Predict the structure.
Amino acid sequence: MLPWTIYITFIGVLALMLLPGGNPRTARLIALVTAVLGLALGLGGIAQHPGGFESLVRRPWIPGLHIDYFLGADGISLVLVLLTGIAAVTGILFSWNIEHRAKEFFAFYLALIGGVYGVFLSFDVFLLFVFYELAIIPKYFLIAIWGSTRREYGAMKLALYSFVGSAMVLVGIVAAYVVSGQHTTSLLELAKFPFPESFQYWAFPLVFVGFAILAGLWPFHTWAPTGHVAAPTAASMLLAGVVMKLGAYGALRVAMTLFPLGLQAWRNELALLAVIGIVYGATVALVQKDFKFVIGYSSVSHMGFVLLGLATINTIGLSGAVLQMFSHGIIAGLLFAVVGRMVYDRTHTRDLTQLEGMGLGRALPFAAGTFAIAGFASMGLPGFSGFAAELQVLIGAWSAFPTLTVLAGVGILVGVAYTLRAMQKSFFGDMGDATEVPDAHPLPPITIPEKIGAVILIGTTLVIGLCPGLLLKLIVPSFDLPLFDGLLRGGPR
Amino acid sequence: MSYLDLLRLAGPETIVAIAALAVLAVDLLLMRAEPMPKRLACGAFITALGCAAAAGWMLGSGPPGGFEGIFVDDTLTRLVKCGVLVLTVCATVIAMDSKFTRHAGEYLSLILLATVGMVLLVGSTDLLMIFIALELTSLSLYILAAFNKQDIQSAEAALKYFLFGGMSAAFTLFGLSLVYGLTGSTSLPQIAAHLADIGMAKDPLLLAALVMTVIGFGFKVAAVPFHFWAPDAYQGAPTPSVALIASGSKVASFFVLARLMITGFGAVAGSGAWQDYSPGWVPTLAVLSAASMVLGNMAAIAQNNVKRLLAYSAIAHTGYALLGLLANDGAGLSSLVFYTVTYGLTVAGAFGVVMVVETQTGGSRLEDFAGLSRREPLLSFCMMIFMLSLAGIPPLAGFFGKFYLFTAVAGGAKDLGMLWLVFLAVAMSAVSLYYYLKVLKQIYVAPAPEGGAEAQSPLSSRLLLGALALGVVGLGCAPDLLVGRLLAAVSAFNF
């Protein structure tokens, strides 16, 4: 059932490409149906999952090079497949107003989603890489054609950063394949191969950083704010929601699993970069004038927690990192939806000073309420998913890096500050003496698709916040799999 | 061995040569009064028929054979020859839309004569045969480059191509004559045996011979620093001619270069591994490869004309393809053939799109592509596939080709000694994405110009480009269609 999440999405792409005429209504319906089917298949796959590692498809693909078409799933994949499904559906709901070249928009959008599903379900390094790069090009076009501020610059920067990152990964994959004797590219088998320590020492940072560029690792994060700001709402939601997770997932799945000794050697440096990212992203977000830049930098900060969790190398920290991937995907999606769709599409400005005088809290109460909830979730208030995830990461990190953990805690405090500042300026600004909203140009009300999308995202973050066990019972047992023996238990058992 | 056997071995070459004469005869005797499109269509039909017959002959002909060390006919050469024939047909179909000449028969028969040379080149294992086939190809290509008599740029292109080509032929001949003097033979297997005795260290003359040969072929495949003819020739020559120069001629040249180096000069390969250098042709070509990748990609960024951009990208791709040669083993040879054939298909497609745009807007500058996706959605999509395949984005053929080359060259030397070249190649392909995206940006993002061209692309182009795009996607998603065959053929190849 799970492989069909990939196939159905690409079938949707084909259907959109072959669709005659340019009716935006039909295009978005096809896209929505495809995305909902993808989500349903993902949920079905999770329900049927037997626990542990499940091999879905494995057949020879390029026998001459011993490369297999190998799809599988463990708890980590499942959680991220679920995230992708939710992000895909809500992203379409928040792009319901796209009229300009709608058919192409949704075709690129679904192509990106299909690639993301593929990455999360691949258990062959070569196949994973194929899906990973497949996701680069749709991002470029989504931003360059439908974006806003400096869209062509933002799109090209994002595409080149991603491609440079994947180029580093490619060198690492080729080297690992050659060193292991060119017998297989399957993750399961490669994870058992004892790569020499001297090899891991340079291969690990190469592959890890290559992936982590996409996860917003400081100082390679600069694509993220410009890319997020330039992108149309749905694309920002996907960028922050799932694309950044591709990077973190690749770093965990490939770099850390294959080269555990390399991780041991570099973990302090990585944790340091992660914490710098947390504090730096939060501090920079505090002084932004553009509403979307605030959210863009907050993504860098929150992804720092994922990377910090990865550097802990213990089950608590790693599970926290995966939970944070999910949680941030949902919350960032919600924040971008409010900023990009609910506010910017109506007011045509994202300047916080201008928004301050508009009294949006009264004009768009639903948007204000949604942003308040999303903001609380983003700050890490208990009861929302962000709290559960970041707490786990910090607990995991405490034993390994006490000083850095305290610094990361400071990052959370700054996070509260920038979120409250943005909330106050955008929605609850001081309008001076005017008590009535100037109704010369009344803002269009929030539409039904937007409300549905917001409710789905808020519901998800609440449910996971109240019982994180729902996801943790998938995530935690995954780290007991033989795949992680090298990483967590010092070599194959 | 009788002459009949020889004719049987040279069947494909004979058939293509007959097709060349038939095209000329039919066009001049029967079709002179007809309108140009009809004459071109008729000629293209005969060409396709000839190429199909030649390919069919190879499929039907029996066990592999050879003729006294002069040329061979085995599965690998048959595969490469089929590739060259397919690329010839592509160039011919692209030419069907052309308006630059009134000499349909001459143009198409020259394409076929160049093909005879290429097909002959692929099977040659003797220095003299190689040189004759090389000259047959080159002379035909010079004329093809000059065929647009109204355009002074076409003449310039041809003259530059001819002068550089003539010079390179002189270098090649000089190098080959030194080899003959050293070994007393012109047949590659015997040369290999002699060279194994001499060895690299004992004879400085051998080094001169190697360098001269490499320079000669360096011109042919447009490797830096012997690339100066390529940008002008690509930009000025008629687009169908460029499609052939960039695709079929490259496949054949690379294959014969590989045969010369791996079969003939295998004993004096040397090593270009990091901190483990020893003289020979491998380090020489490694330097050419690195220089081509860097300069080709960097210079392409600055280009404003798509044909010129593709010329610099071709130089860069020469650098990548040389990696396969550097592996100096079966995997390397197989990856080289895979890469050059898929590159040929991709670049033929790209020039096909350029041809359509040229016909519609009268130029091939980047601005001429603005808004193409609104006017020609199918062609734009094909161009996207071609450009992304050239950039090496999966799941397209260009990506797998690169991956295959990289694993071959990294696995060819012990302790990942050649990984430095892989590093460079991967970094440079990251650079290349920028200029390929620049073309796609014009097509998809830029607004369509006011009152732009309305003309529809001809059906033949749409069919060809659709088929090529399908091929590029197909070979990317299921590379085993070709790789499996290549590996089987290479294992039977006589090194």
